[in-house]
Write a structure and sequence with these properties.
Blueprint lengths: L5 H36 L3 H12 L1 H7 L4 E2 L4 E6 L3 E12 L2 E12 L2 E11 L6 E2 L16 H6 L6 E2 L2 E2 H6 L1
Antiparallel strand pairs: 1-3, 2-3, 3-4, 4-5, 5-6, 7-8
Length: about 170
């Protein structure tokens, strides 16, 4: 008589544990990607500016109360290029007396953002609360380390000993 292998003896519990483990690892991977994307969105100018304006708005404080809580998982899209881009995002926000969304819609040209929509829509209220655009005529350079500043760097900026890559090729 042949002796049964370990798998023959234990497959009834091993296969379900393996399937559940793979599903959990896949779910953790997806959650990690979502958290990474959400953290990137939180560093962008339209997001930070809209949240700052909502936190400073007295009308928003009257409708939602203080302190305001910025929710996770903003929806919408942000497209960025070198000094250009557009944003259409909805940022969940809540306070002790209500919930709503910060609605941001704007375009960037030459690091200058102009917003078509910058308001807070409070659930249960038909009238949105407009938010002021601070420095609508101000040109901003991207903050160091931001996606915009990384995209802005020209292709010849790889340096070694003070020379650009193009200078080394010409030598």
């Amino acid at each position: 008589m042949l002796e049964r292998t370990w798998f023959d003896r234990n497959w009834k519990w091993f296969v379900p544990v393996l399937v559940v483990s793979v599903c959990l690892l896949l779910a953790l991977f997806v959650l990690a990607i979502l958290a990474f994307v959400e953290s990137l969105i939180g560093t962008l100018y339209p997001y930070k500016m809209a949240v700052q304006e909502a936190e400073q708005s007295e009308q928003v404080a009257e409708s939602l109360g203080r302190p305001l809580h910025i929710g996770r998982f903003s929806t919408g899209q942000i497209n960025l290029g070198t000094g250009t881009g557009d944003a259409n995002i909805s940022i969940p926000i809540s306070g002790p007396t209500g919930t709503g969304h910060i609605i941001v819609s704007g375009k960037e040209k030459g690091y200058h953002w102009t917003f078509d929509t910058l308001e807070v829509e409070v659930e249960g209220d038909d009238t949105p609360i407009p938010l002021p655009d601070p420095g609508a005529n101000e040109i901003r350079s991207p903050p160091p380390g931001s996606i915009q500043s990384i995209l802005e760097k020209p292709s010849g900026t790889l340096r070694s000993g003070g020379d650009t890559l193009a200078d080394k090729i010409d030598d």
